[in-house]
Amino acid sequence: MKSKTIIFSFLIIANCLFANGRKAVEMYVSNLKKITDVMVYDVTSPVASARYYAYSTLASHEVLAMLDQDQSILRHINLMLDKPNFIFDKSTIDPIATPTLAMLKTANLLLPSGNKLKADIDNIISNIPQNRKKDSERLADFISLYIQKWALTDGFLQLNNLRKYTPKRGKEYWQPTAPAFMAPVEPNWSTIRPFFLESAQQFRPPLPNAYDENTDSPFMKELKEVYDLSKVLTKEQIHIANFWDCNPYMISQIGHVEFGVKKISPGGHWMGIAGIVCKKQKVSFRKSVLVHTILAMTLHDAFIVCWDEKYNSNRIRPETVINRLIDKAWRPLLQTPPFPEYVSGHSVASTASAKILTQLLGDNIRFADDTEVEFGIKKRKFKSFNQAAGEASISRLYGGIHYRDGIVNGVWQGGMIGDFVLNKLKSVYSDR
Amino acid sequence: MIRHIYFTILLFYVLSFGLNGQTLFTPISHQLSGLKFENRLIESPQNNIITYEYFYNGGGVAAGDFNNDGWIDLYFTSNMGENKFYINNKNFTFSDITKSAGVAGSKGWKTGVSVADINGDGWLDIYVCYSGDVNAKARTNQLFINNGNLTFTEKAKEYGVDDTGHSTHAVFFDFDRDGDLDLYVLNHNVKQFRNFDAAYVKKLVDPDAGDRLYENVNGKFKEITQKAGIKSNPLGYGLGINVSDFNNDGWPDIYVSNDYVEEDYLYINNKNGTFTESLKTMIGHISNFSMGIDAADINNDGLIDIFTLDMLPEDNKRQKLLFAPDNFEVYNNMVDNGFYHQIMRNMLQLNNGNGTFSEIGQLAGISNTDWSWSSLFADYDNDGYQDLFVTNGYGRDMINRDFMKFYADERSKHLQGTTDSKMFQLLQTITSTPLQNYIYKNNGDLTFSNKIKEWGIEGTDFSHGAVYADLDNDGDLDLVTNRMNDFAGVFKNNSSELKKGNYVQFSLKSPSKNVQAIGAKITVYTPKGYVYKEYYPVHGFQSSMSIPLHLGLPSEKIDSVKIIWPNGESQHLANPQANVHHKINYSPNAPSIKLNSLVVNVQPPTFFKTEVQKLPFKHEELLVNDFKVQPLIPNMVSLHGPKLTKGDINGDGLEDVFMPGPEGKDGMVLIQNKDGSFTKSKQVALEVDAKYEDTYGLLFDADQDEDLDLWVVSGGFGEENSGLPLEDRYYINTGGIFEKKQNILPKDNFAGSIAVSWDYDSDGDLDVFVGGRVAQGKYPLSPGSKLYSNNGKGQFEDKTNEIASIFNNNEMLTYAVVGSIGNTNTLITCGEWSTIKTYQFVDGKIIETTNNHFQDTLSGWWNTLHLSDMDGDGDLDLIAGNWGLNAQFKPSNSQPMDLYFDDFDKNGYLDPLWCYYIQDESWPVASRDEITDQIVALRKKYVTYHSYAEQQLTDILPHLNLNQVNKKVVNTLETRWFENEGGKFKKRSLPIQANFSPTYAIHTDDFNEDGIKDILLGGNIAYTRIRVGKNETSFGVLLLGDQNGEYHYTNQVASGLDLKGCIRSFLPLKSISGEKKVLVGINNEFPIVISTQLQSKKQ
Question: What was the ipTM of the complex prediction?
């Protein structure tokens, strides 16, 4: 009896998946973009947006895992909360809409402006066949509430009650930067619970070049590199820098008018790439969800180790030192983001992302990345994820906001995390 | 003619109506007055706030009698259109003669206007300033020379005043006192300059943005900016200028108010053709975005006070839409980079006459007037005190945080076209809010009352430049405003019709080229006090008034008038008639005033001498920031030392001193030498304990071996488990050296503030009470206080739970004293968010006896207590130091400040929510960002600033029962004294100067040796929430007692007190010479000694 049911439901699901696979992936990706839009609106920091992506996509993955009785990623996660029993009849669940619905509902619960997703949620529900509507929604609610409850035990609610950051005294340490001299972003993020890592200190990179104003010092050479390069940037390099800017909140001051110009975060950019390639390669819905989920969770862990190092070394930004020692009026091409320099978060996130996507989707996949078009930046074409990640990393040098060692060691850290996660989840992705 | 009659009838009708309404002012419409000027601004992609950041600053007004017919005419500048010139036809009607007079100005962006008789021919000339994002030629300032027949000829180039800078305004005055008028041109930068190397940029010179000074040499103006020491860097965003004799030495000084990060400038005249910029040595803190300015003697003490405008709104909603979270890094960067302490609100700098100013804008009640431009002090109700008119309004709500964070980005993404066009479209979406102008009556006691309604200036608009002038020659001052996109505002003053008050007007005529006698000083003496004014035509914003000097009078009789002419010669008028306009010709008849001693009615120092010599032992703070631990707390617990204590530590008969050591520094034992100097004695045990934050050192003979032992209270603030060591330490005295004794004190682990030896059980040994200050990481919870019983041999036992469980309370104590009150051995405590409480030992228990001694429940932010028999009746009276009244918050019984606290979001951390009343309703202090950071769940509730702007606590936490939630209350911040009447403390007030700043130190003595005790108060606070702002407005307050138990403030010149910094304790010391001295403990500074010996006796 049981096996019959399984075969029967498999047929239905398979049918749905094959018939609507492409549409399903498109719906999933476009709804994920809606979540991105809300995060952009809320001015969500790179670290927080990775967290929101992770919990939202995890909800979609968990629904699918329950429906397909697949191995859930949850089995490999730190401090998972016991999931209560939930009885459901598969035949009354919409296997395409429900994972997406659970993702949106989780984001709805977690994001400050999550209510902006209400229309998208209603839209999905309205398209579920009548006989599956109620149970699909019930399952999506169950998962999203369960994920929310667990998410809120990760230290996020306590973050702002931890001691606020005071810039350290000493020439080598980070100072607030122009134009808004904002307080540094999330100095206590290393207290947030990761998914896979043993600790936030697990992949500490080597120490950065020591601050040394001696012209021959490694530090000054790399500082000079940032400055000199800024004077001779090619059009292509400028495009690359802007393309990977991914600054969620750039302060624009025009005369008396001051306001924030918002963009997606580095994590948002890579979620976008995952969507583009899943669609282009006609990846199955099931696998697309898995790809997005593993990518988002990896990004979350990547930002935790990266942020731990940022506030471990508290390193000064090139802009501050160049103004101090070389050129008082110098401004970087990109606006310096408000947190310490070392290591480059984009390098960590991009390298880790490329590791995941290459393993799950394949190497040497060509794709055209139009993620930044909505922000007025032309698309770029890549031959592989690794090429894109390499470009994203070096773009921080072109942009004048990182030293080379911050990038090189960020790439190292990102690679370590990517490999670590892939190793841990081998059994989850290897059969799909 | 018929038209005129018709208007006159109408006017009469309107005026009568005004009289029935009993308002001081009546608006006069443009139809009646004929003043059809309006400053029309037309925004376009090429001309807007983005292309020129002072696009919404508006135009100016000038008043003067241009045809010498005895009636005041008016001139208005229009930013984009033609300037207008109106001749006064009497009866409040005016004719536009701009064209025939030839004074419309040229194209280009017109700003300020200055009127003076520049060439000394007896006819008023007009100087018009130009700015804007246009080429140099189009912003050449113009000088219209009066031909004497109501026509003018433009002669800027000929006179050498064709300045092409970005000018805001200009002032004609005789800075070198050579008898002709020189010129200061106030400029501003049109480029933004917000991120830069400050030290570098401050040294640059930008002639278009920086100010310029011109010297009049035989009728030609010669630029001497650099030579004269006038700053001219690109950070100059000059919006206001006032020339007055701020230091009262007979020479004109200059105050320039600068927008943005550049601090204001206060140029003191060196009397040799140069100035010295002296702001930072004379003024403690200033407005951040300083705009208009005025200066006048607001308290009739013969000294010119300064008032600068900023943009802090009065109401809660606009404050909430405006406030970003306090950013300590930005503030510290500003100060560290050579700028200054700047806070966004209006600042009233009260002149102390000794080179210092006390900023009391909040105490005076005039600190919040929103985005304001003109401030005009004048006696509008003719009662002898100068009232205040403020214009208000800004074209668009540019700094609305929703716009900055949400709308701008969202909207700009949907816009099409070029960048310019997109930005212009975006601009159109920013809301535009007309605002109410403000008018305040000077109450004569350093406070002002809002009279918008009663005085009839209600109505919202965008008003910029403004003047007062007696337009109808009826003896009171009417008001005229230049309004954006609206007809000029005209308000007729009805004082004469209402038969209110008295006045006198003077027109001075000098034989020099400075015909108008600009810079003259007039003091009018009446039986009810004197009134003082200096004659400078430029006041307010971009405006000027070459009109008779008008002084309202406190009496209908004038005893005499003293005129000091600009050259220092003095002229006395005996018994001139009041309520008359006097025309006075130069005819000095009194001894000429020595230029260096023009101080009016101020005695030379009679009392104290602040010795220059500091003790070379710095109290050195680790500058912690408690707001980083708990971001929403109202006050810091740290940085409140040193409380100095004294005693003969080495047994040589001289009093020595203990100075508690801040965290990381050892407490110091300062041994007094025979010559009155001090030597720090080597104390190894104290050095070893440097890690402790000492809050108090109690010197007492605990073991009854005839020397003083030391009990040091540990305190400080950090997270719950920050590792800050908190146990108190006990040191036994061995020949002047303290040795730490373990196991003498019971183990304690709480942050204390104070220890007093209190033989509570009267058994002859000294028991100790230690006051608890704060629970670590859990402000406003207190660890409670402790009572330690002495076994007579210097061994202590914690008796709190056994006999004094009443001390297991939630009082955040700051101070305690012991004394016999009503013949009972009483402990008196005070604290923050707490009342003054008394305790006694009765029937084996400590009980609270507050109700026996106090009638009123006075809960405050009490800092200190002092017991002394003030009235000589043999019992101890009490003086209690509170926060003072110079603050945004003004709690009372009916409108208290509340601090609600609980872990509202159950995340394991205490959430302190501080609320106070603004405009009769209680509002949370936290900004939207601050409260959503503290209680993360609120992020979903308050997704915009607007959604939070009008939320009260019950809206924010709707399930909260305000009656049940933990709460602390403050209903008074007033420092006062309490008269002991048979054991009952009766509350008494002190002069308002006692409440300029928080009081932390109190000393009493009969300083003037008249047999009645006097009071010396010290205080100030430097480390506060940024919006609360530092308050260093007290320089030591001397209050002399009289026989009726009243106290009288002695001004700083007479008292000789000039104590700078955060005074934390006064320690009277006996020296061998017998001279009375007080050692002053100052936070993060060297202690200083002041002699409190009556100086006149000494000499």
Answer: 0.90
